[in-house]
Design goal:
This protein has 149 residues and is of the alpha+beta class. Strands 1-7-6-5-4-3-2 form a 7-stranded antiparallel β-sheet, covered by helices on one side.
Length: 149
């Protein structure tokens, strides 16, 4: 399993950022390769289940996601299943009047993609995308337009 861990400090309240990021339907706004979130349903644990569509190197991947653990205004973990298997954890910590946001994703590369493109190239591109996700999130809360889409 490949793991990527990125962090950013955003000049906005933890509650506002958590409310935005924890709603799956908002993620395509900040996640460049995430095409679609649909059939979003609130779960008894306060998280969500949903269907997703993702584009990786021209290949459309589909599946489902479910928040397996959630502590409001602190962190949540989503298990992603389908053509791409992953575990995503978002963590939110106050830092004075700002918020430290940590994005961690562990994933298995789908074999059809591995056969077409080398593992190192995929990992480098996915690391860049993780950086873009946080840059886009930061842009939403700072009012600065991000060109990282």
């Amino acid at each position: 399993m490949v793991e990527i861990n990125r962090e950013v400090i955003i000049d906005a309240s933890l509650e506002r950022i958590f409310a935005y990021v924890s709603k799956p339907g908002n993620l395509p706004e900040i996640w460049p390769s995430l095409i679609l979130i649909k059939n979003e349903r609130l779960l008894p644990n306060g998280g969500y289940s949903f269907q997703w569509e993702y584009k990786m190197f021209g290949v459309h991947l589909k599946g489902t996601g479910e928040y397996t653990d959630i502590v409001p205004n602190e962190w949540f973990t989503a298990k992603i299943k389908g053509n791409l298997e992953s575990v995503i954890t978002w963590t939110f910590r106050p830092k004075e009047s700002q918020t430290r946001v940590t994005f961690t994703i562990g994933y298995q590369l789908p074999l059809p993609v591995l056969n077409r493109i080398g593992k190192m190239i995929i990992e480098n591109i996915n690391e860049r995308e993780a950086d873009l996700i946080l840059a886009n999130l930061q842009a939403i809360f700072t009012g600065k337009q991000s060109t990282n889409r």
